[in-house]
Amino acid sequence: MTQPAMFLAHGSPTLAIEDNNYTRFLKQLIQQLPRRPRAVVVFSAHYDSPVQAVSNDDVHETMHDFYGFPEEMYGIHYPAPGDRELSKQIGDLFADNNLPYEMSSGRGLDHGVWVLLRMLFPKADVPVVELSVDSRRSPAEQYAIGKMLTRLRQENVLVIGSGGLVHNLRLLESGASSPADWAVEFDKWIGEQLQDWNLRMLFDYERRAPHVRKAVPAYANEHFAPLLYAMGAADDERRAVKLFQDYQYGSISLNCWVFGGMVSK
Question: Start and end of every Extradiol ring-cleavage dioxygenase class III enzyme subunit B domain (predicted)?
Fold first, then answer.
């Protein structure tokens, strides 16, 4: 009954108030897990830090870390509890692997976390620990940090990487009726490497993946990083299953990849 690890795209913040194929998928995703997790650990693209951070709050505030969106979004709150014991356990795992880290209190959950979790656990009744990513680290290092948390999955903890495989805000097309060919080709290439668990190719994606500079621009590679953290957390099983794929605004990739564990497809 080991929990899987997951990569979930968080798309536009407006997912919080939208009803579409992806939001409906997310709202039933918990039913595909082997059991209800006792806690959730999220590596978020919107917490990019050179020092590994571990949230350590009893109850999380809700960050509205965006601007220019519908007013109703700023009234949404997701007061999920933290789990100080789990935060300490994660810190100990990092320390055992010689990874410097710091406990973070009072920051709140950014929209890369609460927009997704509000659909998975709408009652905000599952403890959450948010972890930062470091976009300046190599893909191999990011994977290795995720791997440090592998044992948590055996303790009924769900590990999520929240980001976006194709996430270039400068290439959005608000009226697009179909996804851009280059975005689809990039996603397809990444998917092939995931299904083969081809770390050699994935760790070198910046040189090998088609259209990589469009899909993962240098100014936004923190959105790709959570994929590697989530994969690392399932290094013991090395199995990848895609449960969902769609696009927003022509190129923002909305996808769900599940690593290890047992899920019903």
Answer: 5-244
**Which ranges constitute the DSSP H helices of 67-138?**
84-96, 111-120
DSSP one-letter string for 155-201: TTEEEEEEE-SS--GGG--TT-SS--HHHHHHHHHHHHHHHHT-HHH
Closest CA to 132 of 222, 58, 203: 222
Reported pTM:
0.96
pLDDT band at 188 (very low <50, low <70, confident <90, very high): very high
Residues 121-135 as b or e (16 or more Cβ within 10 Å = b): beebebbbbbbbbbb
**Residue range 136-165, pLDDT digits in tens:** 999 999 999 999 999 999 999 999 999 999
- Residue of 28, 69, 26, 21 lying closest to 247 (CA atoms): 21
182: left (phi over 0), alpha (psi -120 to 50) or beta: alpha
Which pLDDT score, from 0 to 100, does residue 263 have?
A: 66
User: In a 3-state reduction of DSSP, which class is residue 248?
Assistant: strand
CB-based contact 35:125 (threshold 8 Å): no
Count Cβ atoms below 10 Å from residue 173 Cβ, excluding itself: 14
What tokens were used for 259?
């690593």
Q: Are 58 and 84 in contact (CB under 8 A)?
A: yes
What number of residues does the chain have? 265
Q: Are 230 and 144 in contact (CB under 8 A)?
A: no
Name the 3-class secondary structure at 218: helix
Instruction: Please give the distance of CA 242 from its chain centroid, rounded to a whole number.
Output: 14
